[in-house]
Amino acid sequence: MPGVTGPSEYSQEPPRHRSLKINAKEPFNAEPPRSALVASYITPVDMFYKRNHGPIPIVDDIEKYCVSINGLVEHPKELSMADIRKLPKYTVTATLQCAGNRRTAMSKTRTVKGVGWDVAALGNATWGGAKLSDVLELVGIPKHTEITSSGGKHVEFISVDMCKEEKGGPYKASIPLSQATNPAADVLLAYEMNGEILNRDHGYPLRGIVPGVIGARSVKWLDSVSVVVEQCQGFFMQLDYKMFPPSVNWDNIIWSTRRACMDFPVQCAICSLEDVSVVKDRKVTISGYAVSGGGRGIERVDISVDGGKTWMEAFRYQKSGVPYVAEDVDSDKWAWVLFKAEVEIPPNAEIVAKAVDSASNVQPENVEGIWNLRGILNTSWHRVQIQSSPQVAHSNL
Ligand SMILES: Nc1nc2c(c(=O)[nH]1)N[C@H]1C(S)=C(S)[C@@H](COP(=O)(O)O)O[C@H]1N2
Ligand SMILES: [Mo]
After folding, report:
1. I want to staple 297 with a disulfide (CB 3.0 to 4.6 A). Which of 14, 66, 355, 358 is the partner?
2. Which are the contacts of 62, defined by CB distance < 8 A and separation ≥ 6?
3. Would you say 6 and 221 are in contact if contact means Cβ atoms under 8 Å apart?
4. Within 10 A of 148 (CB to CB), how many other CB atoms are there?
5. Beta bridge mates, 222
């Protein structure tokens, strides 16, 4: 693509915030401390997790940059950033979550393969850009198309970055054409994040944003968008990001037997405490995030201080102090909710959080039942242990 080069090495990586926890250096994979996630509803760009499979590409001449819209379309086009910006601009607040979020905890049950993540491989941002449905209309594909006359059924996003999983080729992924041409699905070709020009780490100058779907499908640094007959045959759609049953191991795995993960399941995590925390007071404020895929809202977040025997409901909000109601016209349907609960804890408490989404899906109780060899989609109840300091034990006598 004109104007964009992929550095062969990691010598030209962008600057990053010091407090990010680095899970892998090259490619760069890092997440913020838990507490940064609950500090604000919108995650600041520098605190947003970064998930890469290769070096960060460099756009050396934005005037020359263009994205190719091609494949089974009547009028293929090369669009410059000026062309993209001419289309109506939409802003969508959406949580991007890596399917590997909470992988480290899954690994404790049985080893899994993949970059380790704590509970912060996600963030909530306001993305600005053109709707993919408008872009596809420019090349002759009407809104709400499931299949084109030439059999096009999927939209493939192809990047310029190079990763070893694709044998030095670009990262890619696809979504169904019906989703891409549905304006209500809010799929964007985004050039802004939180009102600023998208930075290099997050896909400058243009990336896909597929709300409610695992992060892997929101392809950064777009080179082309292609209407194709089959689902993308790339590594990350066919040989990764699939959920296998606990019985499948590396000797008996058959990748083609499972579907590519798309919508993520209901998830929540406590962010005000680490896995093991020592607290002095018996009264503790528990806070965290809850989010579901597919635009499903969060119906409830339940908190327990006794390992799940008894429960209380947490306060949920998106706008500070305003109670959140799932499916309310004012709520952001693709975004997380933050939750808060004031609890009184017994000595050596196990605090648990679980969320319920608007389709009444509930997180699974234990990680064992959802363990899978790639360690994806760990949505088990989030548990943190409290070690009472001597004062607490004493005041409880
Ligand atoms: N081109 C490209 N797009 C990509 C990736 C990548 O490595 N290369 N990683 C994907 C994965 S797995 C995730 S979770 C998100 C992470 O986006 P972020 O780094 O902006 O948080 O980008 C997705 N898009
Ligand atoms: Mo991811």
Report:
1. 358
2. 3, 81, 205
3. no
4. 20
5. 159
Which two structure tokens, joined as six digits, stand for 335? 């975004």
Would the CA dihedral through 46, 97, 13, 28 be positive or negative?
positive
CA of 100, nearest ligand number: 2
Q: What's the predicted TM-score (pTM) here? A: 0.96
Select the more confidently predicted residue: 325 or 182.
182
Percent over 90 (pLDDT), the chain? 90
Domain assignment present for 246:
yes
d(CA 90, CA 142): 19
Q: Is 41 a pocket residue for ligand 1 (Cβ < 6 Å)?
A: no
Write out the two tokens for 337. Answer: 């909710």
Q: Is the Cβ atom of 152 under 6 angstroms away from ligand 1?
A: no
Q: Is the CB of 159 under 6 A from ligand 1?
A: yes
Round to whole Å and give the CA distance between 237 and 386. 40
Residue 208 alpha carbon to ligand 1 centre in Å = 10
Give how many domains the chain has, as a whole number. Answer: 2
Q: Please tell me the least confidently modeled range out of 218-227, 288-297, 354-363, 382-391.
A: 382-391
The rounded distance, in Å, linking the Cα atoms of 97 and 342 is 27
CA gap 350, 383 in Å, rounded: 7
**Quick one: 166 and 313 in the same domain?**
no
The predicted structure's pLDDT at residue 3: 56
203/59 Cα distance (integer angstroms): 10
CATH number, residue 315: 2.60.40.650
When pLDDT is cut at 50, 70 and 90, the band that residue 395 belongs to is very low
Domain limits for position 49? 4-257
37 plus 108 within the same structural domain: yes
User: Cα–Cα distances in Å, from 370 out to 246, 265, 363?
Assistant: 7, 12, 10
User: Could you identify the residue written with the tokens 């760990």?
Assistant: 378
Q: d(Cα 325, Cα 323) in Å, to the nearest integer?
A: 7
Mutate to test the pocket of ligand 1, among 48, 50, 53, 224 (most ligand atoms within 8 A of CB): 53
Residue 396 has what pLDDT? 46
Residue with tokens 């590396």: 250
